Amino acid sequence: MSVLGEDDDLEVQTGKKRIRPALLAAFCTVLLLLCCGGGVVAFFLDAARNTQNYDAGCGNGQLVDAAAKMPSHHELSEEQVRNAAIIVRVGQDMNVPPRGWVIAVATAMQESSLHNLPDLGARNDHDSLGLFQQRPSTGWGTPAQIMDPQYASRKFYERLLTVPGWERMSLTQAAQRVQRSAYPNAYAKHEQLASTVVNSLTGGAARAAGDSTKLQCVSGDQIAASGWTAPVNGEVGSGFRTASRPTHQGVDLIVPRGTPIRAAAGGLVVKVRCQAHLANGTDWGCWRDGSPSVLGCGWYVEIQHANGLLTRYCHMVKQPSVVLGQHVAPGQEIGFSGTTGHSSGPHLHFEVHINSDPSNNGAIDPVPFMQRMGAPLGVKA
């Protein structure tokens, strides 16, 4: 099985220009790091610290008490967490699904850093106020109303609920349909921290599906409130870096040939290619099945997500359904399972990489990661 980056000497065609994948991946990584303020590593440390109390659940079904003691978060003050609690509680009272809570909290993180901002004078963006930087002049309410976090949260949810299909949109798409921001791609970088905060306030509801009164753990092709979903429903065959395959950088999910493969989360397609060759360098191609003697991923796709995350999907049966540079929503079909490249039978080889980790190309075990995202792998089709 190939590891991420082993074919960086090969070029990818995009329009009339050819871009080396290594340069493209590096550009995407640098861009994301700049957007995140260099806090990618801090985020994952924070997420690890704040998952221990609710990893086992998918939401306790209890209403959030914004006046109670708030859970601690490495990157957020008590005031910021309390404002997030108000946003979540309003969503609960309105029976908005948990996905909406994550979108709302992430939006407030981008707009105000979860501070209830008053008029900042010369530093104000027009007449924007409050947690969501809503503007009285564009119909959000009076200044006094917008400065009430409960009112501001309710107005955000009211507009979100009018957006057709918002539950299956990427966070950026859904938030932008409500906010009309000048920086529409900025929301995505807050998605996982927002999920962590929602989880800590609700006993794990960011990993759940359903409305606020009927939370249940995600199964099948459902999208968790965190915005993640399993790419296929199949048992785990070969695991991550096992004793017999120490360089195996992902997991093999056993599914029949032709099973639809879904994007595990929203993101940008940064690689679509066929990689199948013999040990002597002879091209094998992806128009036929591979075998254990063939090297490479066969037909495969890589998707860049927020916070420096990247997912890879290998051994597709035919050319993928997506193209380089395409933005995909969570759960969007990107191709079909097969056995092209280095493969002994139909399955999906699935990898997760943290690009900020310089060791081993940042590959991490997808099983515990997807469990934390509320989209567990290993479910039999």
Structural class: alpha+beta
Tell me roughly what share of residues is in helical segments: 25-40%
Order of SSEs: EEHHHHHHHHEEEEEEEEEEEEH
N-end to C-end Cα span:
24 Å
Biggest β-sheet: count, sense, barrel? 8 strands, antiparallel
Mean pLDDT: 82
How many domains, as an integer?
A: 2
Counting DSSP E segments of at least 2 residues, the number of strands comes to: 14
What is the global morphology? elongated
- Which segments are poorly predicted (pLDDT under 50) over 5 or more consecutive residues? 1-56
Count of individual helical segments:
9
Summarize the structure.
It contains nine helices and 14 strands. The chain is elongated.
Describe this structure in words.
- With 381 residues, this protein is an alpha+beta fold.
- The protein has two domains: 12-34 and 228-372, Glucose Permease (Domain IIA), CATH 2.70.70.10; 41-217, no CATH class.
- The protein is built from nine helices and 14 strands.
- A hairpin with an 8-residue loop joins β13 and β14.
- α3 (78-93) packs across α6 and α4 (98-112) crosses α8 (191-202).
- The longest helix is centred in the N-terminal third of the chain and has 16 residues, at 78-93.
- Mean pLDDT is 82; it is low at 1-56.
